[in-house]
Amino acid sequence: MRSNQSQLSPPLTVQQLYKSTAVSSNARQLIQSGTIRPIPPKEAALAMNSEGFILLDIRPEWEREKARVSGSLHVPLFVKDIDNSPITLLKKWVHFGYIGLWTGQNFTTTNSEFLQQVEMALPDKDAKVLVACGEGLRSMMAASKLHEGGYRNLGWLAGGFNRAGDSDFPAVEGPEKLQYATIGGASYYFLQLLILLQAVGKDG
User: Fold this and answer.
1) Which of 68, 73, 146, 199 to pair with 127, CA 20 to 30 A apart?
2) Domains plus CATH for the chain?
3) Global pTM?
4) What region holds the Rhodanese domain (predicted)?
5) DSSP E strands: which ranges in 29-134?
């Protein structure tokens, strides 16, 4: 059975939080300066078809399974945390109690081989790469890492797939709509109920 869970990075230590904040701040500066180009979902297809941008999906596999743009590359920035040490297990239980039950979000950890895996998939660092995730935050971090790794023609999908309309990416695979792929847990079923009620209301 395919899981409806999307997953999130675990609570950060002070050092990790500082580093994450620094990366996010650096990414915003790169975007604001135009070094990394923000591309809205409505303009993404044109950027890919006319300008040669390659779409790099950095979402975890369980989100990508629900919906993905045909032909996009996939290298996850976060991967499932398989550490079962007592401290990590305790954090997982706390995380599930506060967040996981409603959102379906579970523990992940940063993919330590992210840059190397992108380099294997895209060795040409002059290639035009459009980095995308669900909401735009993880892809902002990923774009910053790629810039630090030597990629210089980077685009960032502003707002992520969540902001995409049904026609923004004409070729989409998977059982869900692209903009709903990050939703999991009880909130996923709540969303399905809202969609059903909207459909019933239109029919009525």
Assistant:
1) 68
2) 14-203 (3.40.250.10)
3) 0.72
4) 49-173
5) 36-39, 54-57, 68-69, 73-74, 78-80, 108-110, 128-132
The 8-class DSSP code of residue 37 comes to E
Burial of 114 (0-12, 13-18, 19+ CB in 10 A): buried
Residue-wise pLDDT tens digits, 109-161: 889 999 999 999 999 999 999 999 999 989 999 999 999 999 999 999 999 99
Find where tokens 């180009």 sit.
Answer: 37
**Which burial class, exposed, middle or buried, applies to 138 when counting CB atoms under 10 A from its CB (0-12, 13-18, 19+)?**
buried
CB atoms within 10 A of CB 204: 5
Residue 155: which of 186, 121, 137, 132 has the closest Cα?
132
> In the structure encoding, which two tokens stand for residue 183, read together?
């939703």
- Give phi and psi for 129, each to the nearest 5: -120, 125
